[in-house]
Amino acid sequence: MSGMSTRDPLPQDPIREAARNWERHGWGEVAAPMAAVTAIMRTQAILLARTQAVLKPFGLTFARYELLALLNFSRERRQLMSKAGALLQVHPTSVTNAVDRLEAAGLVERQPHETDRRALLLALTDEGRRVADAATEALNAEVFGATGFTDDDVAALNEILGRFRAQAGDFTPET
User: In angstroms, what CA-CA distances link 173 with 29, 85, 88?
Assistant: First the structure.
């Protein structure tokens, strides 16, 4: 796929070269896992850069988009702020910062909870829903539908990374 990077490709794979260096230094037993971890991190950086480029015209970061999407998918297009943070797996301070920016842009509103004065609801505005829908369409077309992975790659990655995340305590797997 062309147009995937803003610079010319390197003449060789630096991660493969790093693995060779690990082997030369006597760390052969961890050379392949080091290369896998490093490749995952580099892949994440590439995918994040693509995602950020698609979301920039909407004035969104991926973190803010995730919050808008979460609200857009919720039944009443609103969510407890604490629950949103838990579902997005981010620190409350990060949720507050994202909400501040989204609220300033007129995309979400903070609302008091009807029965719990300590709780705060986040509600998607009509403009927030419009932006969430348009950003999702753009991401589907330009990132999620054009990853560069085959269908088999995607299935294998979902299985491998899901198993890793479950083993790391990210979530409790379904039984």
Answer: 30, 20, 17
Half-sphere exposure for 88 (CA within 13 Å, toward CB):
26
> What are 125-156's pLDDT values in tens digits?
999 999 999 999 999 999 999 999 999 999 99
pTM over the 0.85 mark: yes
Give the pair of three-digit tokens for residue 3: 């147009």
Separation between Cα atoms, residue 138 and residue 144, nearest integer Å: 9
Read off the pLDDT of residues 14-38 as tens digits, 9 standing for 90 and up: 999 999 999 999 999 999 999 999 9
Catalogue the E-assigned strands of the chain. 78-80, 108-112, 120-124
The ranges assigned to domains in the chain are 12-58, 60-136
Q: Please, what is the end-to-end C-alpha distance for the chain in angstroms? A: 39
Amino acid type, 93: T
Look-up: residue for tokens 């007129």? Answer: 106
Burial code (b: 16+ CB inside 10 Å, e: under 16) for 134-159 equals ebbebbeeebeeeeeeeeeeeeeeee
Cβ contact 122:84 at 8 Å:
yes
Domain range 60-136, CATH architecture: Orthogonal Bundle (1.10)
